[in-house]
Amino acid sequence: MRAAFREKTWIGCACHNLNFVLSHSFERQHSDDDIPGMPDEVLKLVDVCKDIVTIGKRSKLNAKLEKTLKQCVSTRWNSVLTTLQSVASNIDNLRTLSSDMSVSKNMLRHLADLNEILLREVIDVLLPFDTAIRCLSADKSVTMHLILPT
Question: How many CB atoms lie within 10 A of CB 9?
């Protein structure tokens, strides 16, 4: 695209840019990097949620839930939000099913490690990004006029 329009002013996709911001914000800070990274407790929360989803899928617990658990996928936009929301909406059911079934003790340990307050706060921070990306992701209409207000 850039080569085809090299004579014109390039305007990148706002949704891609928002997705890059979110993707880079969830990367771990390198020790030689002066740029502050995501707080460790947020990164730990995301890791715990990923582990809960993995255990839930491997133990067939996912099939017993009304709303299934969703794993983070780097190619899917808002993937971290989707994972966090799926865990948040299933916490009570996961606790009940995990104690009733012969599920790995890792699930109970991860559920105990889950900071529910932080989980809800991180979801609240990520929701506006999701709304913006959905608003700007149209297939059949122009959304350039929505970039600045969004």
Answer: 5
**Rounded Cα gap, residues 116 and 20, in angstroms:** 26
CA-closest candidate to residue 146, choices 138, 19, 128, 8: 138
User: Which of 88, 72, 91 is CA-nearest to residue 80?
Assistant: 72
Three-state SS for the chain is CCCCCCCCCCCCCHHHHHHHHHHHHCCCCCCCCCCCCCCHHHHHHHHHHHHHHHHHHHCCHHHHCCCCCCCCCCCCCCHHHHHHHHHHCCHHHHHHHHHHCCCCHHHHHHHHHCCHHHHHHHHHHHHHHHHHHHHHCCCCCCCHHHCCCC
pLDDT digits (tens, 9 = 90+) for 32-78: 666 667 888 999 999 999 999 999 998 888 888 999 999 988 778 88
pTM for the predicted model, two decimal places: 0.83
What is the widest separation between alpha-carbon atoms in the chain?
65
